[in-house]
Each structure stands twice: as C-alpha cells, then as structure tokens.
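Consider a typical record:
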Amino acid sequence: MSGKPGERIRAYFGIGYSGENNVERRLMDLKRAKTVKRLGWLVGFAGFAYLFLFSLSQVNFSISELIEYWPVFRDALGEFFPITTYFGVIPFIDFGQYWQFITVEQPVQNGTSFTEAALTTLAIGFAGTALGVPGALLFGVLGSERVTPFPFNFIFRGVMSTIRSIPALVWAIIYIPLGGLSPFTATLAIGTDTIGNLGRLFTDALEEVEDGPIEAIESTGANRPQTIVFGMLSQVFTPFIAWTMYILEINVRIAVTMGLIGAGGIGGILNTQQGLFAYTNMMATIIVIFVLVVSVEMISQRTRSYLRGDGEDHGGFFQHLIDLIRGFPQRMSESAWR
C-alpha cells in the first residue's frame, strides 16, 4: 500500500480526510435496516390481525354464542360417547351401543349393511381412480415441456389446473344431469378430479427424468413416441404407480364425503343419522369410516414404501398406525373440498 503512514492507517480503518468514519456509517445502516425490519414485522402483524378480525366478523363468530350453546354441545358429546359401567365399577365408553347399531339397527332401519356401504365407497374411490388414470397420463405427458414445446404444453397444464380448481364435490353437482346424485356421478366426479391431480404429479415427475436414457433411445433411431415410452416413461414407471396409490388413498376419503351430499356409500349413512340427530349412531358410523379409511391408507403407504425400496420401517407397524390415526381428522377435512 503506497502513501504516507497516516494515509495507510486511514485507509485501513476506513477513515477519510473528511473525518467520516465508514465503520460508524455502517453501524447506522445496520440500525436503520433493523428498524425497518421491525416496522415490517409490525405492519405484517397488524395486517394479519385485521384480516383475522374481518374473517371472524364475516362468519359471525361470537363468544357469547359459544357460551350460550355450550350446554347443548356438552349433551351431544354425552350421546357421541355414551358411558356405561364395566364389571359394575369401571365407567367407560359403551361400545356395545356402537356395535348394536353397526350389526343390527342399521341393516334393519335402512336395509343396507355397513359392509355393503363400505364396498360402495371403496368401489367409488377405486373406479374413479381407474377412470382418471388414462386421462391423467395423457395430460401429464403432454403437459411436460420435454414432450410438448413451450408454450403449447401450458394448454394441457391449464386444463389440469382448471380441473384441480374445482373440488370433486362440485364436479359431482355438475354431473347431476347425467343421473342425479348417485354412486355413478360420484365416480365420474372422482375420475375427473383424478385427471387434474394425478396428471400434475405425472408432469412434475417427467420434468425430473435423466437425459442419458433419452439420448440412448434416440441414438438407436427410435421415433418420438418410442423415445417418450422407452426413454422417459420407463424412468418414472415406479413413481407413477406410487402416485396413483396416493391418489387412490385420497379418492377413498373423497368418496366418503360424497355420501354426505347424497351420492351413496358409507357417507350416506352418516348423513342420515345426522339428520335424525342420532349422535350415538353417528359416532358408530364415524368409527367404521375411520377403520375403512385408515386401512386403505395403510395398504397404500406400505405399497408405496415397497415400490420406493427404501427399506425403512419408520418406527414399525404400530408407529405407522399411530401416525395415521393422528393425521386422520386433518386428512378427512382436506379431502372434503379437494
């Protein structure tokens, strides 16, 4: 460094002849940035609080109403979970009332057993998924930029986005003119929904394929369809099956909610009992729904784990079951308007 010793010292510490201290200036900049950040957080919190209060007012949320109707809700909870005494001394939930409704009362009242209703729900979910897979594969492949040049691939992506933007329950309502609210229209609705959701997953998977196998197939003189099938789809065959199983898992939950609007299946039993305010019977139906959906999820997740070949048990069977139970309410609520 050239110059006099004083110049070298000033240059080293960032102090100019004018007496300005660059270090102090930087400290001021840091303080100013910190103040701006705090103001940003304050404005963000104020905006969140305003939106939250506005949302509460839009839905007429009222603490006084909660207090007023709490006794009614408490009585309903007593019917949801009836209490009996076991061995004459141990008070616990009376599962006998649930079992009585499941095995005797429901078949006598409506002529439909839980087994028949569960099979209908499973059939709606499975058939809807199977109907949607070909369309999902077609739109998923054509939506990939590796297959369809930009911007034409966005035509197919747009179709899938449009389908996904409409919940499956709304699709069922759209299809009412084809046959009313029935298992048939519910199956069509789930099939349509599958095209959008599964197709997008297919597209994302195709975007991640390796170039090596594609180039190897092209070097053999293969045409474009052969390159797509043997160079691209062959790489994502296992993920396709895994994603299809995942969508099947979701579609069974959607099939349950279809029954709540009159499309049949086990959800129809729940809807009937809700209309009768038979809370004990509602809880019995919810237990059956829980067993059905968790069973399908376990089969689906274990199948996907096997296909991945990761060899991980994630805590074993019982830990896997506990994780499914914990997330069951959230997954059912998400499926209602998926």
